Amino acid sequence: MGGSSIARDPREVRKNIGVMLHQPMLYADMTAMENMIFFADLAGLKNSRRTCERLLLQVALDPGSIKRVRSYSRGMLQRLSLARALITDPP
User: Fold this and answer.
1) Can you give the pLDDT at residue 2?
2) How many domains does the chain fold into?
């Protein structure tokens, strides 16, 4: 996957996988941007703010919004989950 062998380098392969589940795995008390930056940090991405902003705009969410995710509609949660799945830029 992505030029890496899952048998030889599973960690490298995992970096190329984005997952979007039925149940959004997001932090309800954070904003969309806070969630994105949190998951970008977990993925080891440096200086990820611009990437997070770009992805949120691509899924029609406002990166500057101060609304907590708990107030999002189901569609907004799905779009945020999609942006989160794309944070590692999977192939």
Assistant:
1) 61
2) 1
